[in-house]
Automatic annotation (TrEMBL):
It holds the Pfam family GFO_IDH_MocA_C2. This is Dehydrogenase. Signal peptide: none annotated. Residues 40-161 form the Gfo/Idh/MocA-like oxidoreductase N-terminal domain. It comes from Sphingomonas endophytica. Residues 204-263 form the Gfo/Idh/MocA-like oxidoreductase bacterial type C-terminal domain. InterPro entries: Gfo/Idh/MocA-like_OxRdtase_N, Gfo/Idh/MocA_oxidrdct_glycsds, Gfo/Idh/MocA_OxRdtase_bact_C, NAD(P)-bd_dom_sf, TAT_signal.
Length: 456
């Protein structure tokens, strides 16, 4: 797909301007909710992660649910610990196509979107255009352009409360790590190392043959916006889709919203100016991008416009990790599941995937960190309160934790690693114009094609 360069020059504003007529003005449909009001909710993608989100929202009115496989949803709520969610789901009206649900249910206030990555932006746009608050699982979008579109919608409809599902952003430990870093306890940071054990699904493998879809699964609705017609295979749905290029965004898209969040936030990095991704073999070596992502990647992000001066962040996935830093405290270890290491000129700080367990490394660092004042608000319930933070923000009771104004540039940063992977060479990026400047062909990876009827 060829991108109209002019549409990028105005950033999010230019993107939003090209959306076309809104079915009903969003402001006209957005209802104010008081402190004691229950919010009328719908969920798109009601099993899996959607069930986890909704289990934290059973105090609200769950009036509708959309899922392409109700048998999968039933399995997700079979745990007796989710009895309240099962009861709410049993009462909710059922849909397999969220477009129909959003067009026919006029009683909705808000929507949780937890479908696969390739649906996120399309579903969010439909909901926001209809005046609904949205909670969208990470990654917020499948492409860079989609993020700019959602940012424009959020900016132009200020009454809408938006949240991305990166719950670590609400955690006490992560917020304290941000304060310590900003307070200068480890000095000037010029290097950040980030790692994860993902993928924990199939990657670096050949595309399987199509087989008959389960009778309970609406495969065409699951495909949704994806233009490929590969046919069903259990290696795609319900969980392994993350590793397949038309449906997911790989390990970076899955875990970057947690891990990359903290350095982007704490160090005020802005958008990267140069990105390069090294990788193992693609699942389809002769046609990268047409199949599964590589099993492991290392991505180098250079932030030339970071607030405190240039910083390099290195991302490792597939079980790869940076070397253990010298001077680790006795008993401390680098969590092989994932973590972040900040290297400053006066010490180091390390934390786990969701910002948990900040570890201070170096002489005098602990003393300097202890002197750093608390400057960030704490979210009621911490990480476990991320969903209810969204509800309380809708009611006007608490500031939102991870709105699209925060989530879009974070998601764009992550996705530029995927763009560099697909480009096969380093890319130089102009964030103001949202354009790759040194590899013209790479700009096509900032956007994507959509199946008819599912366009953004």
């Amino acid at each position: 797909m060829t991108i109209d360069r002019r549409s990028w020059l105005g950033g999010a504003a230019a993107m939003a301007a090209g959306l076309g007529a809104t079915p009903v003005p969003a402001a006209a449909r957005t209802r104010r909710r008081g402190a004691n009001d229950r919010v009328n909710l719908a969920v798109i993608g009601a099993g899996g992660m959607g069930a986890s989100n909704m289990a934290n929202l059973t105090s609200q009115n769950i009036v509708a649910m959309c899922d392409v496989d109700l048998a999968h949803v039933a399995k997700s709520v079979s745990d007796p610990k989710r009895a309240a969610l099962k009861a709410a789901y049993d009462k909710a009206e059922k849909y397999s196509d969220y477009r129909r649900m959003l067009d026919t249910r006029t009683d909705l206030d808000a929507v949780v979107i937890a479908a696969p990555d390739h649906h996120h932006a399309v579903a969010a746009k439909w909901a926001m255009q209809r005046g609904l608050h949205v909670y969208v699982q990470k990654p917020l979008t499948y492409t860079v352009r989609e993020g700019r579109v959602l940012a424009g919608l959020a900016r132009d409809n200020a009454k809408l409360v938006t949240q991305m599902g990166n719950q670590g952003h609400s955690g006490d430990d992560g917020r304290r790590a941000v304060e310590i870093l900003r307070g200068g306890a480890i000095g000037r940071v010029r290097e950040v190392q980030v790692w994860t054990n993902r993928p924990i699904w199939s990657q670096g493998v050949a595309r399987p043959d199509a087989v008959a879809a389960p009778a309970s699964l609406d495969w065409e609705a699951w495909r949704g916006p994806a233009p490929v017609d590969w046919g069903y295979n259990p290696m795609y749905a319900h969980f392994n889709w993350r590793g397949w290029a038309p449906f997911g965004t790989g390990a970076l898209g899955d875990m970057g919203a947690h891990l990359v969040d903290f350095p982007v936030w704490a160090l005020e990095l802005g958008l990267p100016t140069r990105v390069e991704t090294r990788h193992s073999v693609w699942g389809s070596p002769k046609n990268p991008g047409d199949g599964s992502y590589p099993l492991a990647t290392v991505t180098y992000f250079d932030f030339g416009n970071a607030k405190g001066g240039p910083i390099r962040m290195t991302w490792y996935d597939g079980g790869l990790m940076p070397p253990t830093p010298l001077g680790m405290p006795a008993g401390a270890r680098m969590d092989p599941g994932g973590g972040v290491l900040y290297i400053g000129d006066q010490g180091m700080l390390m934390h786990e995937t969701y910002g948990e367990k900040p570890t201070l490394i170096g002489d005098g660092v602990a003393e300097r960190a202890q002197a750093v004042a608390q400057t960030l608000p704490r979210i009621q319930g911490g990480m476990g309160g991320h969903e209810m933070n969204w509800i309380r923000a809708i009611r006007g009771q608490e500031a939102i934790s991870s709105p699209f104004a925060t989530a879009v540039p974070l998601t764009e940063t992550m996705l530029l690693g995927v763009v560099a992977l697909k480009a096969g060479q380093p890319i130089d990026y102009d964030g103001a114009a949202s354009r790759v400047t040194n590899v013209a062909d790479a700009n096509r990876y900032l956007d994507r094609e959509y199946r008819k009827g599912w366009e953004l």
